[in-house]
Design goal:
By secondary structure, this protein is mainly α. The chain folds into 3 domains: 7-144; 145-187, no CATH class; 192-292. Helix content is 71%, strand content 0%. The chain has 16 helices and no strands. It has helices spanning 7-22, 30-41, 52-68, 73-84, 94-118, 122-127, 129-144, 147-155, 161-173, 177-187, 192-200, 204-211, 219-235, 242-263, 266-280, 284-292. Helix 3 (52-68) packs across helix 5. The longest helix is centred in the middle third of the chain and has 25 residues, at 94-118. The termini are far apart.
Length: 306
């Protein structure tokens, strides 16, 4: 076992490494950088008394040196694993070593992490190996863009506001906007699929309460839900008491207007309302209910004089 390095000596070595890397040296200084890390971590007392900031700096410089002159990818991956699962463990940021590890090194780490996660024992729990593996799995998913794996890893940490925001951002970055909005809605206790169920069951006010719990940017997702609801109420009115469904349709129409406003699509609502009036304008009772709901009906086109 090597003698633990004197912090002042290690700091001086790191200063030299930093200057060389900043100057764009062509020399391979990765071995020297790794030696600096080893000198800080190989002491008989482990990490006790080690300056954490100095260790973080040494690891960061080793990552830069590896990026400039990549070592064997499997060997580097094994070093990352040995440090991460060591006794005591050392946190090695995979993002910093991603370029040097490449796909080969990252896959090597992933296979070990997956195997660790697949086997959970009381001993591994005590050592914290499972938690370390979960952290590495999350970093690998972030680096490789494996959104499904990332969401699965983060979902284990729910409920947590910050984690929910991370999931939403990851899904949006991947272009999966509907899933992002649905997750945000569930995090706030509002599931869009539940809104349709409530409307179909006649619980309009409960559905609207749930709708208003959605993030403002998700308004466009439920626009179609409310359009179908309005159309269905008008088409499937109770012939014995048409005012009931017409009144519900009018209220839903007003709420639809609000959703279009929130979504920034007022023109679409105007066009929809115009089409509705063109089709159902002769239904006097319906038009009356719409006016009662404080929805302004479009004015009929002026008749041109001959």
């Amino acid at each position: 076992m090597r003698r633990v390095g004197d912090p002042a000596q290690v700091a001086a070595v790191l200063d030299t490494l930093n200057r060389l890397l900043d100057a764009g040296t062509q020399a391979d200084v990765a071995r020297l950088a790794r030696l600096a890390v080893d000198r800080l971590t190989d002491g008989p007392e482990g990490l006790a008394g080690v300056d954490e900031a100095l260790l973080d700096r040494a690891i960061a410089l080793y990552a830069r040196a590896c990026a400039a002159h990549p070592p064997d990818r499997i060997e580097l991956a094994d070093w990352v694993l040995a440090m991460s699962f060591g006794d005591p463990p050392v946190t090695v940021p995979l993002h910093a070593f991603a370029e040097a590890l490449g796909d080969t090194g990252m896959e090597h780490i992933r296979s070990t992490v997956d195997a660790t996660l697949a086997v959970s024992t009381p001993e591994s729990a005590v050592k914290g190996e499972h938690a370390i593996a979960e952290r590495l799995a999350e970093e690998i998913a972030e680096i490789t863009g494996d959104v499904d794996r990332l969401v699965a890893a983060w979902s284990k940490l729910l409920p947590d506001v910050e984690i929910s925001l991370k999931i939403v951002r990851a899904l949006r970055a991947a272009g999966r906007h509907s899933e992002a909005i649905a997750h945000a809605a569930r995090a706030r206790g509002a599931d869009p699929s539940r809104i349709s169920e409530l409307l179909a069951a006649g619980h309009d006010d409960e559905a609207w309460t749930l709708t208003r719990q959605l993030p403002a940017e998700s308004a466009h997702l439920v626009v179609d839900v409310y359009r179908r609801h309005v159309d269905g109420l008008i088409a499937g009115r109770d012939t014995r008491n048409p005012a009931v469904n017409y009144a519900r349709a009018a209220v839903a129409l007003r709420r639809l207007r609000t959703l279009h406003r929130d979504a920034g699509t007022r023109d679409e609502f105007t066009a929809y309302l115009a089409g509705l009036v063109a089709e159902h304008g002769r239904k006097t009772r319906l038009m009356d209910e719409i006016r009662k709901a404080r929805v302004a009906l479009p004015k009929p086109p002026r008749q041109l004089r001959p």
